[in-house]
Amino acid sequence: MKLTGIEITEEGATAVTVDRQAGAMRVTACSRVARRDLASDAGASVDDAELLAALNRSLTDRGEKVAVVLPADEMVIRRVRLPFRDPKTIDKALPFELEPTLLEPLEDLRITWESRVAGEGDSDILALIGQEENLERRRVQLKSLGMEPMVLAPSAVASALILARNEDAFFFTLRRVNSSCTLSVVFERKVMFLRYFALPEKGDGLDVLTREVWQTLVALAECEAQWLAPEKILVAGWEEIPESLSTPLGELPVEHARLLAATGAVLDEEVKPLWAEGPYNGALAVACSALSGWKHPVFWRQGFAPAEFIAKHRGQVISTGALALVLVLLLVVRSVLGVHDTSRQLAAVEQQMKNLYLSTFTEDKRAPSAGVLLRSMEGKVRVAKEEALYAGQGAVRVRIIEILKAISTSLPKDLKVTVTRLTLVKGKLTVSGLAEDFSAIDTMKGALEKSPLIDGVTIASSSKESGGDRFQFKVVVALSGEEAL
């Protein structure tokens, strides 16, 4: 089977056609198109339809179907931990865990995830969320260009996991495409962390790279409650790389990511002069993964087409009709015998949901009956979301966490102030704490007044701490409630 892998990015798109015969894979064509090359002038923008049409025209060899890597900005990344490992239970509970952190309704989203064992009976989950509307638009867009979509995949997952085939270690992957970079953390051959960031258009961007690696290590340490040291960093897209990067855990060795070698694919002679390891990695990875039977998280996958299968294998279907009949009879028997097992599994799932309910809502002593358990959980989640919102003086409600974020980002990092208490009553937020001197209190007042969510700041009281050198203060913050952030 021949298949074309396509990766769409902010800068452009790349395509790689891979032919698989008898288990061996050959790269028969590759092409890449930059948006800036299609624009009529420097300020013009090129939409994806025009970009994909140009990419399709530039390919010398196209596959029967396409597997597409979507842009990084079209998905949301979340990491959560759930107290069970069964995939079906995770599928049911994960949306409830994610809903308070998402802006769009769940029915408008497509959630895919990767999990790994964490602790006793827990699962550490990397959730990738895409919008149904965008996915459907992509499918229609591709079909209108004569390209039959087989897989719509999240960015970076396939390339990171293909590298993990030959790497048992805990490692980072860094992949540069023009001025953007993808950082993936792979552990136990699963992606446990994804991050995207911009690089300077000029220069090697190693200072930005080092900073992002540091921040990722710190974020992992906070999530895992311990420092995790990767054995190496695999990079692609840089012509020259340092031997190592300096991190809080010491020097980490840096190596070139050899994704072509990891896939086992061979380049045709006419492809070799055009090939570049970094830019084509995403398209190559998604094509090889789709041809090998996709086992990674995916936003959309083409379903089984019986008519197409029968048309290609009509003779075999007829000759094996008797065997199919026997299999159907065995399936009926298995279905009858499986009724009992299904009932038992359903009871186990309901018990797990009750345990989750009681562990989440500890004020309830008993879980509702199975018939109303789901509606009860939805109601409590809705109440929790309402309590996490502040209406303010405007028409649009603001998440309380956004108010706290606004305060946190407004204060200078070197400000010597310790906040000990926050109280929100009728649109006024009272901030209490300790400061090194009165000027620090005044600086905090000035910084908070610059926030779009704050109408005014008043120093209600300030006095020197009894028996100490610091000042006790109480500041009253008037909130606007406007959606300015």
Textual characterization of the structure:
The chain is α+β, with helices and mostly antiparallel strands and 485 residues long. It has three domains: 2-73 and 136-291; 314-387, no CATH class; 398-479, Gyrase A, domain 2, CATH 3.30.1360. The protein contains 14 helices and 22 strands. The chain has helices at residues 35-38, 48-58, 87-98, 132-144, 157-163, 206-224, 259-263, 281-291, 306-312, 314-319, 321-360, 370-387, 400-410, 438-449, and strands spanning 2-8, 12-21, 24-34, 65-69, 75-82, 109-118, 122-131, 149-153, 171-177, 180-187, 190-198, 232-236, 244-247, 250-256, 266-267, 300-301, 389-390, 398-399, 417-425, 428-435, 454-464, 471-479. The strands form five sheets. The chain has a seven-stranded mixed beta sheet, with helices on both faces. A six-stranded mixed beta sheet has the order 11-10-9-12-14-13. It is globular. The two termini are 50 Å apart. The relative contact order is 0.10. It comes from Desulfoluna spongiiphila. It holds the Pfam family PilN. InterPro entries: ATPase_NBD, PilN, T2SS_protein-GspL. This is Type II secretory pathway, component PulL.
